[in-house]
Amino acid sequence: MALKHILMVGATVVLLAACARVGKDYTARVEARQQAYAAAAGGPVDRFHYFSLWSWEPLGDRQLAIYTRSSEAWLLDLDGYCSNLPFTNNIALTSQASEVLVKFDRVLTGPHDTPCFIKQIRPVDVAKLQSPQQGKPREIEEAQRPAK
């Protein structure tokens, strides 16, 4: 019984160490992305127009990059903690007549989550982003379907 207990404790320690490592890697990745977007962002604006959401990237629980086209992005700073933002698969933006306004419109992360008010909007110069994969669709490798 003692050996089984020691093995369980050992396995738990290894698992916790692995989780801590993953958490540090995730935090470092998010901080690097936040810095890249901050460096590419312009001054604050009051609003932006959009007709559809092309893509988006969560930057923690208080910041979000919104792509309205492949070459047009906006950095949104959110007022307070935005529940579930780093983990949700879908978001929505409130707007009126395809216009999103600072301090009025919100980011929605789910039906049961509290809406997140947009505190600040900054345009992003997509060409200045440091990561080569940002601002363009990911490359897709195409192959012919094998004949039956």
UniProtKB/TrEMBL annotation:
Signal peptide (from-to): 1-20
Superkingdom, taxonomy of origin: Bacteria
Region (Disordered): 129-148
Bias (Basic and acidic residues) ranges: 136-148
Pfam annotation, one family: DUF6491
Keyword Signal: yes
Protein name: DUF6491 family protein
Originating species: Dyella halodurans
